[in-house]
Amino acid sequence: MAKKTVATLQTASKRLTKAIKMVKSPKTGAYTFVEGIMSPEEVDTFLKKK
């Protein structure tokens, strides 16, 4: 079961978003977490990538 988490971070000059998604490893079958800090517009493309 995949789960996504999105948190909004604000800095003095720029608004950023931290996105975390669970990815299943093809070799072992274990789940790992992939994190990224990006602008809010890029979150949907990050979560759709495999």
Task: Give the key terms.
single chain; elongated; 3 strands; 3-stranded antiparallel sheet; mainly beta; 50% strand; 50 residues
Question: What do these coordinates show?
Answer:
It is a single chain. It contains 1 helix and 3 strands. The chain is elongated, with a radius of gyration of 13 Å. The longest helix is centred in the C-terminal third of the chain and has 6 residues. The protein has 50 residues and is mainly beta.
Strand order of the largest sheet: 1-2-3
Structural class: mainly beta
Order of helices and strands: EEEH
Tell me the number of helical segments per DSSP (H or I, 4 or more residues long). 1
Biggest β-sheet description? 3 strands, antiparallel
Give the integer mean of the pLDDT values. Answer: 82
Integer-rounded radius of gyration:
13 Å
How far the N terminus sits from the C terminus, by CA atoms, comes to: 15 Å
- Strand percentage: over 45%
Low-confidence stretches: none
- Helix coverage percent of residues? 10-25%
Number of strands: 3
Coarse shape: elongated
Any chance you could write out the topology, listing elements then pairs?
Blueprint: E1 4-10, E2 15-24, E3 31-38, H1 43-48
Antiparallel strand pairs: 1-2, 2-3
Quick take:
This protein is 12% helix and 50% strand. By secondary structure, it is mostly beta strands.
